[in-house]
Amino acid sequence: MKKFLTIFCVLCIAHCAFxxxxxxxxxxxxxxxxxxxxxxxxxxxxxxxxxxNHLKYFEVKKDGKVIASFDPxxxxxxxxxxxxxxxxxxxxxxxxxxxxxxxxxxxxxKILYKLGxxxxxxxxxxxRYIVGMIDEDDGDNxxxxxxxxxxxxxxxxxxxxxxxxxxxxxxxNKPYIEYFTLDDKKHTVExxxxx
Length: 195
What we know:
This protein has one helix spanning 2-18; strands spanning 21-31, 45-46, 49-53, 58-62, 65-70, 81-86, 92-97, 101-106, 111-116, 120-124, 129-137, 142-151, 157-160, 168-173, 176-181, 185-194.
């Protein structure tokens, strides 16, 4: 009986941990004629800390003085650090590489989370979740793209339901995200995570 209760408790805890979903609370749409891939403002300054992305390495400055410089995943010569952004609390740096995917490091360059090629155009929603897109293309045009919220601690992906077939370049600003569609529209949705 004790073994059964232990297994039951483990299953209940696992269910609670994985039963979360992202719910769209409200949505607005407006025309957008800019470059959607560059629309998201990547925050690299938090209070007196600034991160400079030199594409092949990062520098961390405090009050204008360099306090750290690192190439955290030793990218190869054909790769770059892209989509870099500081976490809302200013303690973690999110970035991607074209060859290895998504990483989160501390401000000394120590890898905290290696998420792999889980999504592209990722950015912070809060200190635990990031948003990004999972897309496909034919070499010239997007053929599919879905938005996803990712729990950095577990790597669990939660789809963000959109009505459009191709949703691109999400920009998070909790509780909202903006995303773009091929018909030159910007969509803003309010999100909530529910169990």
